[in-house]
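>> Question from a student workshop board

For tomorrow's exercise we were told to take the sequence and the ligand below, predict the bound structure, and bring the output to class. My setup keeps failing. Could a helper post the expected result so I can at least see what it should look like? The ligand is zinc ion.
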Amino acid sequence: MMTAKENRRRCPAFVDAHVHLSLAGEPRENARRHYELGLGLVRDAGDRDGCLAGVDFAPLEVVRTGPALFKPGFYGRFIGDGRDLPLEEKIAAAPSAFVKVLLTGLVSFDEYGAVGPVQWRADELAAIVRLAARHGKKVMVHVNSDAACRLAVEAGAHSLEHGYFIGADTLKMMADRGVYWTPTVAAMANQLADPQGRFSEHQRRIIDKNYRRHLEMINYAFEVGTPLVIGTDSGSYNVPHGGAFFRELELFAAAGIAGEDLLFLATENGWRLLERPVSRWLEVDLARFPAPAAVAPAAPATSAAGDYFVDMKL
Ligand SMILES: [Zn+2]
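>> Workshop helper replied:
Here is what the output should look like for this input. Compare the format with yours to find the bug.
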């Protein structure tokens, strides 16, 4: 029988690969909520016209993409770059090694499987990826529908965000190419609670079907070795800063990924995705993980993050 002590693991802090600190609340207060729950690093995936520039989020480490690239008239103004500037200028000005691109619109809650229009042609997206690479940057792509996910992978995206309706073959392709997937399933599942009463019964049935299919694809992605990370889309409707991270973990557990596997995705894989040295450490009780009560702060470690997951197969 394992003792409680044997279940405790020292590990890098949690990483949320997809948040919007500028949405739903005051940005520094939002950052504080993430930090309190054991997050050490988050990626902000779009702030309208760079509204977070110069904000000090310490002690939380924040990798900002800056405002997202979108085409005027398409989805994304609320987190996007509305300036009339050449693409390369916008890309060069991105405040980190990651550029956010909106490829499709939102998932429809009226018609199952329907997704807002594709904004960029394949050659345009490939050109964005090339321009980003010229400036030492990688591209994270907001994308839904299998065809658009495939387009993003073929264009050289570094990570796919959301990916509703993604297909098995696309996930295998991502596994082969090392393209990360941030499924943000809590952002869909949490719509069901609908505290503002926004949705009809018909829409709720579609939301339910969407997130259940997504859980199956998350399970499949893990089986075939698609690099998975935890991202919440915190700041969107009913996706609270901080708490949504544990909701996303619960849903991954419901998808069949648990224990040490899940801890790896929630911690080290996020630091790998964002290519940052670990700046915060935790002690996590695997017997209670992913409950928030399983997490305690730990003193800084001197070893590399990888030392704590030497047996992992990912
Ligand atoms: Zn987002």
